[in-house]
Amino acid sequence: MSLNAESTAFRSALEVIRAVEPRVADAIGAELADQRESLKLIASENYASPATLLTMGNWFSDKYAEGTVGRRFYAGCQNVDTVEALAAEHAKELFGASHAYVQPHSGIDANLVAFWAILADRVESPALKKAQVRQVNDLTEADWFALRRELGNQRMLGMSLDAGGHLTHGFRPNISGKMFDQRSYGTDPATGLIDYDRVAQAARDFKPLILVAGYSAYPRKVNFRIMREIADSVGATFMVDMAHFAGLVAGKVFTGDFDPVPHAHIVTTTTHKSLRGPRGGMVLCGPELADQVDRGCPMVLGGPLPHVMAAKAVALAEARRPDFADYAQRIVDNAQALAEGLLRRGTTLVTGGTDNHLVLLDVSGYGLTGRQAEQALLDSGIVTNRNAVPQDRNGAWYTSGIRIGTPALTSRGLGTAEMDVTAELIHTVLSQTTPGANADGTPSKAKYVLDPAVADKISKQATDLLAGFPLYPTITLG
Ligand code: DSN
Asked: Is the CB of 216 under 6 A from ligand 1?
């Protein structure tokens, strides 16, 4: 692909948009400039390829395609069938799965599809069976009442939020926390690591229908073989949400016991984090759950997004190239270099390091809350997000942690030497920031004091660091 083709494509698109609503065209241009200038360390973000981005901006967006490939509720879906089948084929090949469902719009959607499939497969309910075999009209009011009672009282065991679990694994702010009777397994308070014996004990005590593994802020590998054994020992369905580390699975950094696909009954993911695809979700499973998974739309999803499924096909084709494995390995090398750089400077890290794409800093050693640290770093051109740490004393809003991840900077080409510079920038900001006070003199968990000259200096150093690694180097908007 020549430089001109990509630049021409985006310039032309902006020209067309500008003719209708120039403020949107300006915002799109400004977003590229902002992303180019910021040291993006948000562990769940990345930069999709120009091909993936361009695939999302076309007339596939106009097509309704409820149903599945070859079995739609609308006419004229032959081209949607092509891209959906391609995306599923690439996903199956890439992850070694027997079935892939590429319609979910996000990770929450993918998890809802999986929950439904498991409930439909596992819950013993005569009313549900009738509903499944399309005798819905035969169901009485009593049947519906029984069905709701039976579906609504199922148990889920997932990783606790402050240990790094995700909201959609049965926590109250998400619908999963209202649907399921949920219990959590945490991590060992001394090491911050999953203690599989405790997970097994929790499973024996609680007897969940679903055991969920997966995380958004746990900086270590998970042994999925052991988790499957635990699930089997209590008759639970084992579900893995690999949204954060799908790129590491695709790139064969996580193999054997650490690859969830051969061990889980069902695997969900997003496609835009370490996998570097378009915004969206996906479900992988074996033949037992495939029929139920394919009912995702209209069961819990609105109409599929054909333009995004097309972009998933493009991104998954990219992830099947040999250089993706090199990219995935560099993500982990970078995270480890960043962790080592921080440890050398005295930063406290949850679990003492990382073996995936993310590092979780406990900033209480700097005397700060996560919120104060997040804002001070932002003032200094470093984009992160605050995150709870295990047994967090500051709760989920202020927190005591900062989560950082390397997929995006690795996509730009930064390597381990630049990670050491990044560690120095982060440490300088955090060590120069002090907690602020409220108007009445009481300590604030949000206010902070950072000399603007320090913030400016670090911002400039971050920009200098990034200058050697231009984002979307083939694209000039003029
Ligand atoms: N929002 C994503 C994250 O930051 O981890 C997952 O929900």
From this structure: yes
